Amino acid sequence: xxxxxxxxxxxxxxxxxxxxxxxxxxxxxxxxxxxxxxxxxxxxxxxxxxxxxxxxxxxxxxxxxxxxxxxxxxxxxxxxxxxxxxxxxxxxxxxxxxxxxxxxxxxxxxxxxxxxxxxxxxxxxxxxxxxxxxxxxxxxxxxxxxxxxxxxxxxxxxxxxxxxxxxxxxxxxxxxxxxxxxxxxx
Length: 186
What we know:
The protein is an alpha/beta fold. The chain has one domain: UDP N-Acetylglucosamine Acyltransferase, domain 1. The chain has one helix at 2-26, and strands at residues 30-31, 36-37, 42-43, 51-53, 58-59, 64-67, 72-75, 80-81, 86-89, 92-95, 100-101, 106-108, 110-112, 125-127, 130-132, 137-138, 143-144, 149-150, 155-156, 161-162, 172-175, 180-184. Strands 2-5-8-11-16-19-21-22 form an 8-stranded mixed sheet.
């Protein structure tokens, strides 16, 4: 009986993935074959050709695409995105192939200006590109700030903060806030 329900779950994930792919394609975006979704993502704005998702990507429940019309989101092949992940930017965010993003991760490529002479809500955005290399793993609750660059093979521990000033080396394991090097991958 358990296998039957697993089979039904797989069919549902593929059907939702196909629906998401059609939605993106109809809005001028690109989405590769084999897309799977545990639940349909929420779009803050209707995409207009500014989202590209590779082949065999998988999304959990509660994914939020908060990509402004000026922003761009590129997700590579075979990327696994867990539950409640937020991609938010008015600028570019790139996620390389074969990455894993755990639950409750926030990846942000822009923030409000903060001049004192007027409320921040009426000010423009500061855009900084976020680049995540191939084979990167982001632990649960991680926040990736605008301007962050994560090289290939990096693992970020749970509840960490990655900013533009963090110097990460390929295939290193990092954790914390402030981020510190734990060791290298074997």
